[in-house]
Amino acid sequence: MIQKRILLLSLLLLPLTACLGNTTQQPGDVIEPDSLVTDSAPSGHRFETVGYIKKLYTRSGTHAIQFDAIEWLAGREAAAAMREDDVCSASGVSAADCSPANGFYVRNTDEAVQTYPLADELAIFMQTRNAREMLQDEQISYTVFEAALKGGKQNIIERYQAMPFWIETNKDGQVTAIREQYVP
Predict the structure, then answer these.
(1) Is the N or the C terminus of the chain less surrounded, counting Cβ atoms within 10 Å?
(2) Does residue 148 sit within a domain?
(3) Is 50 exceeded by the pLDDT of residue 35?
(4) Quick check: is 172 in a domain?
């Protein structure tokens, strides 16, 4: 019990200590994150597509998602994309000082959704299902995933509407794995 409390306290204080220790960062400095997503993917999985799950449903016994693909950009690539998209000048920040606040930038130039059937052998990994503590790559069942996303309702609940997920698909276009992207 004490170890869990220490871990929870450590996770809560980590962002604060990171801010306190970074006194040399100046406006325009680009954060180069060590690993935002795919470098530490669960064993045996290769996540290549990231986006938002717009709908999770079952039709004729087949589970499926409607998915809006996005670009997840980090570091210098993110800063360049922000300048290209004119995000910085629109908020009064000069191009020289333009950089992503948390080290990443999400670009969604096409909000069209694509439907993907879910494979029978689906692996699902969550980061924030438990509101009290982050459990990195907690593997859960489809039933638990559905309950978390829908919150007992028909549509995706607000908390997960803007939460990116990485998907892995097989040669038949079925989703074989889903991984929540933690967003600080």
Answers:
(1) N
(2) yes
(3) no
(4) yes
